[in-house]
Amino acid sequence: MIARFLLLASVAGTSIITPSVFAQEAAPSAADGVEQTNARGDVIIVTARRRQETAQEVPLAISVIRGDSIEATGNFNVVKLQQLAPTLQVYTTNPRNTSVNIRGLGVPFGLTSDGFEQGVGIYVDDVYNSRVAAATFDFLDVAQVEVLRGPQGTLYGKNTTAGAINITTNQPTFDFEGRAELTVGNLNYKQAKAAISGPLSDTVAARIAVAATSRRGTLYNTTTDRWINEQDNLGIRGQLLFKPNENFSVTLSGDYSKQDPECCGTVFVRVGRTQRALTRQYDALVDAINAANPGRNYAASRNPYDRLTDLDSSLSAGNKIGGVSAKVKWDIGPGTLTSVTAWRFWDWKPENDRDFTGLSVVSKSQNPSQQDQYSQEFRYNYESQKIDFVVGLFGFKQRIDTQGTEQQGADAVKWSLAPSTDPANPYNRPEVLAGLTATNTQYLKSTSAALFGQLSWKVTDALTIQPGARLNYDKKSGFYERIVTNGAGQVISCTPAPASGTDLAAQCGVYQPQVSAPSDSAWNFTYDFNVNYKVARDILAYATYAKSFKTLGINQNGLPLNADNTVNYDAGTVKPESVNHFEVGLKTQFWDRRATFNLSAFRTEIKNFQATVNGGQFGTVRGYLANAEKVRSQGIEADFKVVASERFTAYANGAYTDAKYKKFTNAPCPPELSGGTSQPADATPDYSQPGVPGALSPRQCDISGQDLPGVSKWAFSYGAEYNIPVTLLAKEGQVYLGVDGNYRSHWNSNASPSIYTEVKGYALTNFRAGFRGEGFDLFGWVRNAFDVNYIDNLQVAPGNTGLIAGTPGDPRTWGGTIKFSF
């Protein structure tokens, strides 16, 4: 029996596979005139180009991660998946504020806005998921995950500029089969998964799968005496397959997942000096509030790895997502017609502590929203000896409704207003801001349609030319209204501008009423061109150029203010991104196809890059979209894997990514420059010293030449597994020992890179050991085995006070897993 090994990770266009699968890929292909054989019949098939082929045949950078590898390494959602794919970056402060980027590109780093598109598309069984909240849910009965890097617009329904994550679930079978898995660990970690599949008749088969995950939180809140940032996931997926003959099939699918954890809180990380007056910086503000309220304690700990916080507002991350789809496949002569119809919903119910402290500055912050999306894709695939092509039509409609509430607390006057010794001054009267409430109502309507296609022309047995094109139309319209009431429940107006020093002036400095209704539409024509050449049977070289785009955006969270404190309505819409992408790659196999080495190099240039910016206020605007003039990402990706024997396999992969703002002259200032006004307009900010004047205006800085946030220049993954055959309790199988790990160099966690939000590089190591045989697997595991302290992300607290909050990464965890299948 061929041993089952750890599935291997890839970076530059290879797959994560078991030795038995590798043997299948390593064998000469049918095109070489030799029959392929495999003891288990396992074959890794990718559909990145909307047809079945092995990963080494695909002339683009792609990683394929099989479902059992995901389970073995404990990477149970897209957020965790980045530990196996170094060029994938996923950062989350809560399910809604999740960034999924590839090569540093995808979505703006920071607060999420509904008004822009995703640069990395997430597809589940060909259905596009428009919100990255889907990335935080457990993988549910997943067969494999394909991570495609680079623009994907001529083969996929929804255009994406940075790549796509293509998730394929296990499908209904006409043979009865099932599987069950149970995991327990420290921190009260529990995870259970089960799936069953089989025939209902000669032409109908069904499959149902469930998964549940729970874990105690990793942060302790001294205010509520509770652990927070817990895991609480539940999901179910059902599928019904109707297949009357080999040429026609209909698959109906439905899924529902929910999360209801007490999440997502932060800890104190550090304080940085800003250019504001010393009395308006964090330590002085806390001292002033303490002086006014003797006996109150606000500092749970100043060491983030004590994992203590003192947040005083309610926390919740209620999250529901699901939908139904119908996929029809009809083989028509040399081609296949596919129709994918889908409806999906997303229901988000958050509660946050937006001042990141135990102070009652912002006493309530919540922006629940509800989304409905509808999509329809028609696709025709044609294959022949010389010509293959894919042509498709895609339509998408979406509506998002949001109802936001943000309220000021009893400590807000000391935090937000200038100090004064006058007892009548608003600074000394908490009731001026306490209870001040901004109620936001907004909606977004989004419609898009596209015609896309790609041709593959086999000029010779070795040379193939692949041009592709896309015609796209997008329309977005939104509405935003903010009503402000004081602590007595009275609606306030800030027009005309109130006199300085009055209660109303203080209130309008925190929240201002606003109404906006941005709307825009755009057509885009884009294309790509790929040339690939089979240098030898086991060497494939390719080169790609793609002219791509990310469609227009609109600002849905309120608009920024001009210097005279009027609303900047010109910021209501954001220009489309214009993308030029270049890539070359080499895919090789050697040592009788038991070893693979792949290499790719890329350069992506984006004009009018859509970035999230924030002026630092609490409620004047939560964050808005703006265009950075030019961004560039370039780098090299390489990977190596080897199946030395049935006993030993290993992999190592790495990536170098250099992603920069080439030109961004109107960016928000980082905290060390906030409050500065003395730098001339033609100067470059000096980021090396805190407190050095560097702002071009009170709100904007030139950050041209700075690194993009969230990107490590160096990232590596590695793994190995060794097994020996044994007979244990009359069961034949293998005892195995495995290790996997990853490293990321330092990166910055603020949209405008700051010396205070630099995240140190770190390396994580995981071990597992167990015994497996036919139909079962029992193993123990330890993750972050050396209990490395590291930061998942940092956030600049609102108000420009210098406070930096963050979320520590998971500590050492350990447990055991048992799996059965039949």
From TrEMBL:
TonB-dependent receptor plug domain span: 55-164
Positions of the TonB-dependent receptor-like beta-barrel domain: 283-784
One Pfam family named in its UniProt record: Plug
Membrane topology of this protein: Multi-pass membrane protein
Signal peptide: 1-23
Key words of the record: Cell outer membrane, Ion transport, Iron, Iron transport, Membrane, Receptor, Signal, TonB box, Transmembrane, Transmembrane beta strand, Transport
Subcellular localization: Cell outer membrane
Coiled coil region boundaries: none
Top-level division of the source organism's lineage: Bacteria
Region (Disordered): 671-699
This protein's GO CC annotations: cell outer membrane
Tagged with keyword Transmembrane: yes
A biological process term (GO) from this entry: iron ion transport
Family under the similarity heading: Belongs to the TonB-dependent receptor family.
PANTHER family: FERRICHROME IRON RECEPTOR-RELATED (PTHR32552), TONB-DEPENDENT OUTER MEMBRANE RECEPTOR (PTHR32552:SF81)
Name of the protein this chain belongs to: Iron complex outermembrane receptor protein
Species whose genome carries this gene: Sphingobium wenxiniae (strain DSM 21828 / CGMCC 1.7748 / JZ-1)
Phylogenetic classification of the source organism: Bacteria, Pseudomonadati, Pseudomonadota, Alphaproteobacteria, Sphingomonadales
